[in-house]
Design goal:
Number of helices: 5
Structural class: alpha+beta
Oligomer: single chain
Radius of gyration: 16 Å
Distance between the termini: 35 Å
Largest sheet: 6 strands, antiparallel
CATH superfamily: Jelly Rolls
Helix content: 10-25%
CATH topology: Jelly Rolls
Strand order of the largest sheet: 1-2-3-9-4-7
CATH architecture: Sandwich
Order of helices and strands: HHHHHEEEEEEEEE
Strand content: 25-35%
Amino acid sequence: MVSDDIKHEVKKLHIGRKIRELRKKSGLILQGLSDRTGLSKPLLSQIEKEVVSPPVATLLKISRALHVNIGFFFQNGDMEEKVVLVRRDESKVIDSRYFGREESGYYYEALAYKKSKKYMEPFLVEFKRKKVEKLSYFSHEGEEFIYLLEGTLEFRTENQQYILYPGDSLYFESSIPHAYRALERRNARALTVVYPVR
């Protein structure tokens, strides 16, 4: 069940509205954005209508297609700073699932959303326990780094699996289809840094 607080925070970001406005500004129809991202028109429509909260990989594909940094979707203004500080109570937590549908299995929190022009995208990610057959595999251009803070995390590609314990780190090319799941009853938490290729 999605917490009302998280639903409210996601709605306040108006990610779908920002995507729709950028798409129209770029002169694209939904099919054009679908062609650029490889995402289906129905999914894009649901994201724009804010029925669906997009996972990081999906949002990265959309931001790349619309020529903006992923941090753009977490900002309320256009001000650019050379140094930004995000306080604990200013976090932007996204429950990465289809509201009312199957969960994708994690929450993510944008840690440097106030800085729009940057090469790296840091997130604090909380992974839930899932059955192997329920895992969703994601891929996007770029590279990714994970440092596990709490719990036990399984990282899978289509033909390999790795188990991470607190203090372990993993660096991989994110174009490889990949999935994660916590292996204990409690959620696993990790610092994740994504470097999206432009």
